[in-house]
Prior knowledge:
Number of domains: 1
Helix content: 25-40%
CATH superfamily: NAD(P)-binding Rossmann-like Domain
Bound molecules: NADP nicotinamide-adenine-dinucleotide phosphate
Structural class: alpha/beta
Strand content: 5-15%
Amino acid sequence: xxxxxxxxxxxxxxxxxxxxxxxxxxxxxxxxxxxxxxxxxxxxxxxxxxxxxxxxxxxxxxxxxxxxxxxxxxxxxxxxxxxxxxxxxxxxxxxxxxxxxxxxxxxxxxxxxxxxxxxxxxxxxxxxxxxxxxxxxxxxxxxxxxxxxxxxxxxxxxxxxxxxxxxxxxxxxxxxxxxxxxxxxxxxxxxxxxxxxxxxxx
Length: 202
Ligand SMILES: NC(=O)c1ccc[n+]([C@@H]2O[C@H](COP(=O)([O-])OP(=O)(O)OC[C@H]3O[C@@H](n4cnc5c(N)ncnc54)[C@H](OP(=O)(O)O)[C@@H]3O)[C@@H](O)[C@H]2O)c1
């Protein structure tokens, strides 16, 4: 297992917990950087000969204004850089390693906020648009790699994290359980939006 984070101290802080589950390595990269994908590719290639699963989990929610045009300039671009472009670049950089994996799968951590019905809800417009776009990326990647690599958009549900806030009804362990169910779906399941192991409409 390889974890990627921009803060070396946070990467190290999970070592004790994750090492109990098996071999664990950390790679330090800021996903806002143009060099992040190549840093991650080099790091992964120096550890493993192939990859089975990528979970594109890092995400940001930078604005809470009522409408898109009310958001401070640059917020949409910053949001898309982390929530859309980073998963695209990282997965593309890791493609040759994924092709050597066993029933390889990419999981793009999306959100109900970026579904067709979620797009009609108020606030967090850049965030919604970024997850809508990530859903589109999921569909395109699944089509391109059909029969070789499964690609899924995963909704972790509304849970209490820095991003989810203290009022969320769920806890991160709920998301982890849903993620595990998603990883374990048959490899023929691809190009879908999944929550708690169930396929839902985009
Ligand atoms: N929580 C929810 O209710 C909810 C609902 C739907 C979807 N999601 C999605 O679930 C995923 C995880 O979110 P979360 O709730 O765990 O949010 P979080 O607590 O804010 O964590 C986000 C993670 O992304 C990392 N990150 C942000 N920018 C980065 C960068 N430039 N380079 C490297 N890492 C970066 C953060 O690293 P640092 O620790 O260094 O800041 C942090 O570890 C996100 O994709 C989010 O959109 C969450």
